[in-house]
Request: fold
Amino acid sequence: MTTLKDIAEETGFSIKTVSRAIHNHPDIKEETKIAIMEVVRRRSFTPNWAAQSLRSQRTNTIGFVVPNITNGFFGEIGIAIDEFFRSRSYSTLICFTSNSRSNEVASIQSLLAKKIDGIILAPVGQSGDFLDRIPNLGETPLVLIDNRLTGPPRNYVLQDNVRNAALLTNHVLGHGHRRVGFVTGPLEESSARERLDGFRSALEAQGMAFDEALVRSVGWEIKDGFDATLSLLDEGSAPRPTALIYASSQLLLGGYRALQEVGLSIPSNVAVASFEHPDVIDALSPRPTTLEKIEAKIGLAASTMLLSLIEAKGELLPPEVLIPGELIVGGSCGCPSLR
Reply:
């Protein structure tokens, strides 16, 4: 059976150089890599990953745990994470939790049993105590995204939800709207709660009263946005909102469907703005006013943080990184040149 030593002897390079070429290490010159990989292919050499892991105490594998990969937001973050780690010869194992705490725990335990080198987790709920009760998790680098948990300080990469929600709200208020509805996710999750806080702070900064009757806290799925929108439009004798802001693109999609179903025109009857900007959004008419695509930035920041924790070289990144967003103006808010 061919070994690394055999490849090294035939090519004239050291075992370390051969190993780095096989792992596509960026420090290896292209011509060196080509020469080594030609011999590797000719000899049908397959690295003994198990033996290498025992020697290095690493598996070159990380875990990505998310509530729902069909949600474009998490899917695009996952693509960025996989691209980052693949270029560094890591594999990514993805687990779906279906918004279940028990599934989160089972997924993390499964990854730990595979001796992965680190985990990026998008947790559900609010309490973080469950993480401290998972055996051996404290010895594994962990980065949390999208939702802040209670408990001790942890490594986070989050959207700057308060700022970003205020940015959307101020833009809508700039069109003269004074009765604005807000649809967000479960308030036990920090992302939903902070986005509502940003909405409230923008209203109050402009001397407007915050009206809880114009807020709906629901799940994050398209149907939740649909139901919440119908609820906001059906308030009996109360005037309906003249503008709606959605805390995610999934909620926005449900909102568009609801407004179409009841025969209201965007933005003539109701102005609309939303967090997130997956590619499918551009197929909507009018094109929604949203925040820029931020998924790749979150994925890159989380990956960079996790790799720093794995390698523990030099100064580690701050325990919490907030990603700001910028406005992408479409026609749904009422900007006349973009309808």
